[in-house]
User: Which sequence fits this backbone?
């Protein structure tokens, strides 16, 4: 499942589902038309494609997710760190902070996450 990729438009469509689930397919068609300018056939084609990838399901006209938005983006982040930084979170953070400074709040949040991890 780590190989699931979403293009920009697919991600916008997925967000519509995640924000509104469970959602009736007829309502999804309306939202896709108003937010993405899609026709009914495009909505169902993309929904079928994302269902085949194991992200969503359309069961009796009700569309729900098989994986949450947080889980999906966690998998994508993990894959990025693995492929780009040989799985090293410290190497990722070092690269990230070379161009963007962390706020005091972000540093505190990171310290808290590490402390909680060490307690487990």
Assistant:
């Amino acid at each position: 499942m780590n190989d699931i990729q979403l293009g920009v438009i697919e991600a916008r469509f997925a967000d519509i589902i995640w924000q509104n689930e469970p959602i009736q397919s007829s309502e999804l068609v309306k939202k896709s038309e108003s937010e993405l300018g899609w026709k009914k056939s495009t909505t169902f084609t993309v929904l079928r494609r994302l269902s085949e990838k194991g992200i969503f399901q359309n069961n009796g006209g009700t569309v729900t997710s098989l994986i949450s938005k947080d889980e999906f983006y966690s998998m994508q982040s993990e894959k990025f760190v693995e492929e780009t930084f040989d799985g090293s979170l410290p190497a990722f953070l070092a690269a990230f902070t070379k161009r963007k400074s962390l706020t005091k709040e972000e540093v505190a949040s990171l310290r808290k996450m590490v402390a909680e991890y060490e307690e487990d």
In short: The first strand starts at residue 23 and ends at 24. The chain has a mean pLDDT of 93. The beta strands are 23-24, 56-59, 62-65. The chain is about 70% helix and 10% strand.
